[in-house]
Amino acid sequence: MQRIENINAATMTDDKGYGLIQDATVIINKGKIEFVGAAFDAPATPTAEVINGNGGLLTPGLIDCHTHLVWAGSRANEFSQRLHGASYQEIAEQGGGIKSTVKATREASAEELLELALERAETLMSQGVTTIEVKSGYGLDLENERKQLTVARQLAEQLPVNIKTTLLAAHAVPSEFSNNADGYIAEIIQNILPTLANEGLVDAVDAFCESIGFSPAQTEKVFKAARELGLPIKLHAEQITNQKGAKLAADYQALSADHLEQLDEEGVKAMAENGTVAVLLPGAFYFLRDTQKPPVELLRKHAVPMAIATDANPGSSPIHNLPLMLQMAATFFHMTPEECLRGVTVNAAKALGENQRGVIAEGCYADLALWNCKDAAELTYQFGVNPLKTLWFNGVAHDRVSKPWSAR
Ligand code: NIG
Ligand code: FE
C-alpha cells in the first residue's frame, strides 16, 4: 500500500475542468486507487509506504490514444521532397508515403520492429504516458499486420505500459491489389480481420477514409465486419477532404473519429449523438503545414469530447512527445489548458473504451503521473522541459530519471 501526500490532484472527474483537489492524499492498494480526496478526509493507513509529493501536481497517467508506433524505415527523404515543393498527396500518389513505410516494415523482422517500437514507447513514457494505442496499417497483409500487432502486444510485456491495439489494415491498398481496392477490402473482411481478431490481437478496428485512402462505401464494409465480431471502431476521417466519414463512423457508434480538419456541423452532431470522441492530432496538422483547423468551436457547442494524441508515425507526424501536443492544441486550435489535459486523460480513455483509466478515482487503475508543477496549466504552457518526477503504472512507481522499466 502506498500513500501519496502533499500534492494537488487533478482528478479529471468533473465535467469541464481539472477536478482539482488542493492538498490531496491518494492511497493506492493492489494496483488500484483506494482513496482520493482532501488530506484531512483521508483514512489512517499505518502500514502504507508514504510518498511526499513536495507540493507537486498529480494527474492520471497520460494516454496517447492514436499512434502508429510500430514501423521501420524513415521518410526523411519525403520530408525533403515536400520542402522542395511536392505535396503529401503527390508523394502518396507516386508510390511513396504510406507505401514506402509498408515496404520497410514488411522487410523488417519482428525483433527489429520491437527494438524500434520499444525506444519510441519509452520516449512517450518518459513524458508521463501510461497507455498507448498502437495501430497496424504498415503490413497490409495477414502476416505483416499480425507482425505489427504482435510487436504492439510485446511492448506491454516488456514495459510497464498499457497497450491498446487497433487493426488499420484499411490504411492503403497494397501492391498485390493495385487497382483493386475492393478486392483488398474483401481480403480484410474475409481473412485479415477475423483471423487476427480470433488471435486476440485486435482491440479496435480503424480505416483511412479519404480521397487517397478508402471510400465511405469501402469503409462501411469494414465497419460491418467489425460489428459482426463485436469490435469497436475508430476512423481516420476528414483529414484532407470531407468524405462524411465522421458521420458514418458515428452511425456505427465509433469510439472516435480522428483528425477532423474538414469536419462539418452535420458530422459534429452525429458524433455528439453517438458519444464518438473527436481525436485531434495537432502534430499532423503542424507537420503537413495544414491551414484548415478542426472545428473546435462546433465540437464545444455540441459537447463532443475532444482528445489529443501524437499520431506518431513516419509520414505525417514523426513526433513522440505528447506534452508538446498540448501546447500545439492550445496554440493552433485555441483549446484551453483544461481541454488539453482532458484530451490526454479522461477523453483519451473514452476514445479507447477504457473506463477505469484517465481519471484519479476510487476503483480505477493507479496509473498516475507526479509533476513538478504548481499549476495544471503548466503542462500545456511549457514545452522542451520535462517536469515529470514519478510515474505509476498499475500502482507500481517508476522514477523517471533512472528509467528502471527499461527492458534492455
Ligand atoms: O494518421 N492519415 C493516414 N495515416 C497516417 C499517416 C500515415 C503515413 O503517412 O505514414 C496519419 O496521418
Ligand atoms: Fe493516424
UniProtKB/TrEMBL annotation:
Pfam family, one: Amidohydro_1
Positions contributing to Zn(2+) binding: H66, H68, H236, D311
Cofactor(s) annotated in UniProt: Zn(2+); Fe(3+)
TM segment ranges: none
Keywords: Cytoplasm, Histidine metabolism, Hydrolase, Iron, Metal-binding, Zinc
Catalytic activity: 4-imidazolone-5-propanoate + H2O = N-formimidoyl-L-glutamate
UniProt protein name: Imidazolonepropionase
Organism: Idiomarina rhizosphaerae
Gene coding for it: hutI
